[in-house]
Amino acid sequence: MRRLSSAYTNHPRLKLATLLAAPMAWIVLIYLASLAVLLISAFWTFDTFSATIVKTFSLDNFIELATTDVYRVITLRTIRIAALTTVIDVVIAIPIAYFCARVARPRNRTIILVLLVLPLWTSYLVKIFAWQTMLQTGGLLDYVLPFNVGYSETAVLIVMSYLWLPYVVLPIYGSLERLPGSLLEASADLGAHSRTTFMRVTLPLAVPGIVAGSIFSFALTLGDYIAPSIVGGKTQFIGNVIYDNVGVAGNVPFAAAYAMVPIAVIGVYLALAKRTGAFEAL
Amino acid sequence: MEPRLTRIALRITTAVVLVLLYVPLVVVGLYAFNGDRSQSWPITNWSTKWFSTAWENQDIRTALANSVKAALAATVLALLLGTCAAFAVARFEFFGRSTVSLVLILPIALPGIVTGIALNSTINELGIDFSLWTIIVGHTTFCIVVVYNNAVARLRRMSPSLVEASQDLGAHGWQTFRYVLLPNLRSALAAGALLAFALSFDEIVVTNFTGGTDQTLPKWIYANLRLPNARPQVNVVALVVIVLSIIPIAIAQRLTHDPTGGRGS
User: Fold this and answer.
1) 3-state SS of chain B?
2) Could you tell me which residue, B174 or B14, shows the higher pLDDT?
3) Which of A6, A116, A194 is opposite residue B3, by nearest beta carbon?
4) Short-list A114, A103, A120, A112, CA closest to A177
5) A62 touches chain B (CB under 8 A)
6) N or C: which end of chain A has fewer CB within 10 A?
7) CA nearest to B82 within chain A
8) Which of residues 162-201 of A touch B (CB under 8 A)?
9) Where are any strands of DSSP class E within chain A?
10) In terms of CA atoms, which chain B residue is nearest residue A137?
C-alpha cells in the first residue's frame, strides 16, 4: 500500500490517469458511443414489410420529416410551446428572483430558496400526474375555474411552465444576488427613479441569468414527451413521435432522425445563448 | 430602495407562486386518502383503505423493490465514478479538462429522450436483453454528474494547503485521503449520493427506453395512471414517491448548507 501510494505521489500523471480512467470509460464507451450509434442509425431505414432495419446510408428519414405536413406541424408546435413556456417562466421568475435576492431578509431568503428547490427535485412524473388529477373533468380546476382547460395544448403549456419554473428562478436569482449593491446606489445617487434603475441597470445585468434559466425551460420542454402524453389530449410533441416509433412501430431509424431535430434546435439556442455570457451564470 | 408598494407587490407575488408550486403536490397527497373510486373534487369520503390495497399489490411491491435496487446501484456507481472525476478535475491541470466537465454534464444537458433513445438503440444493436441492469446503466450515466458537481464544488473551496500540510507531516497518499480529504468531503458526497438516489428513484423518461418489461415505481405509475380501476392505488404510490424523494433532498440541503442542492446557480 505504502509503495503504491508513494508511486502515485511521485507520478501525478499516473494518479490522474487512474482517477479519470473509470468515469471517462463509462461516459465515452456507454454514453458517447450510444450517441454515435443514434447518429448513425438516423441514416438507416426501416423496412415495414419485413419489419427489419436496413443498414445502408440514406437520407429518406430526413426527407420524410421535412416534407410531411404532420411532422412539420408537430415540430413547430413543440418549438412554439417551448418558447411560450420560456416567456411565461421568465416573466414569473424575475419578480420572485428579484424579491429573493434584493428585498427579502437573509433568513427569509433561505426559506424561499428551500421552498423553491424542494418541488424541483420531487418526482417529475408525480407532478404531471398531479396536474392530470386537477385538470380532469370534475377535478379541482374544473371545480374552481368557470371554464374547463381539460387535456389540451393549453394544459401542456401550464404544466410545462409549472415544471420548469424553479429551474428558471435559480440562475436569475444567482445573477441578481451577485449584483454589486454599489451599482444600484450609484444609479439612485445620480437621480434615477427605482424603476429606471431596475430597467436600465438591474435588468440588463441580469440578462446572463435570464438566458441561462431560459436554456432549462426551452430545452426541457423541447425534449419532453411525458407531459403531452398525460395532459395533452391529442397534442403531440416531437418526443411523442419518437417514443411511439421506438416502442410501438419499432422504427428506430426514423425516431433517431427525429431526435436530431431537438438536438439541432437546442444547439442553435445554446450558440446564441453563449454570446450573452449565459454559461457563466449556469 | 424600492417604494413600499413595490416591495409589498413583490412579496405577495412570491408568496402566491410558492403556494401554487405546492398545490398539485398537496392535492395528490389528499387524493391518496380518497375512499371513493371517483376522482372528482371535492373529496367527500376519507379513508386509508387504498394504502393497504396498494401494499398488498404484488406489482407495486416488485416495482418498489426494483426502484430501490436501481437507485442504490446507480448511486454507488455514480459515487465512485463521480468522486474520481471530481478529484481529477479539481486537483489536476491537464489538457482537455473543460471537455471532461462538459462530457459529464451532457447526459443531463441533452433532453432525456435523446439519452433514452440513444441507449435504447445501442442496447438493441448489441443484442443485450433489457432488464434492471440496463436501467441501472442508464441511471448511473446521468447520476454521475450530480455527485461530481457536489464533490467538485467542495474540493474547489478546500484550501490546497490542507493536503500540503498533511504531506509535510509525513502522511502518505492514502492517509491524506483517509484522514484529511475524506472527512472534509464527506457531507458533500453524502449530499451528492442522496440527490443521485432521488434522481434515479423518480426517473421515467430514460427508464421507459431502457427497462424493457421490468417495472420501476415511476414506470408502474405511467402504465396505470390512465386506468380508472388502478387510480386510487396510483394516488397512494404518488404520495409515497413524493415523500421518499423529498426526504433525501431535505437532508442534502442541510448537509451542504446549499438550498439549491448543487443545481442551478
Assistant:
1) CCCHHHHHHHHHHHHHHHHHHHHHHHHHHHHCCECCCCCCCCCCCECCHHHHHHHHCHHHHHHHHHHHHHHHHHHHHHHHHHHHHHHHHHHCCCCCHHHHHHHHHHHHHCCHHHHHHHHHHHHHHHCCCCCHHHHHHHHHHHHHHHHHHHHHHHHHHCCHHHHHHHHHCCCCHHHHHHHHHHHHHHHHHHHHHHHHHHHHHHCCCCHHHHCCCCCCHHHHHHHHCCCCCCHHHHHHHHHHHHHHHHHHHHHHHHHHCCCCCCCCC
2) B14
3) A194
4) A103
5) no
6) N
7) A23
8) 162, 165-167, 170-171, 173-175, 188, 194
9) 45-47, 52-54
10) B40
Q: Does B126 touch chain A (CB under 8 A)?
A: no
CB contact under 8 A, B242 and A122: yes
Per-residue pLDDT tens digits for A222-267: 999 999 999 999 999 999 999 999 877 788 899 999 999 999 998 8
Whose cell is 434615477? That residue is: A192
pTM for the structure as a whole: 0.87
Note whether A26 contacts B3, CB cutoff 8 Å.
no
B143 to chain A: which residues are within 8 Å by CB? Answer: none
> Residue B82: CB partners within 8 Å, gap ≥ 6?
A23, B104, B143, B144, B145, B146, B147, B148, B151, B192, B196
Average pLDDT score, chain A: 89
Distance from CA of B39 to the nearest CA of A (A): 7
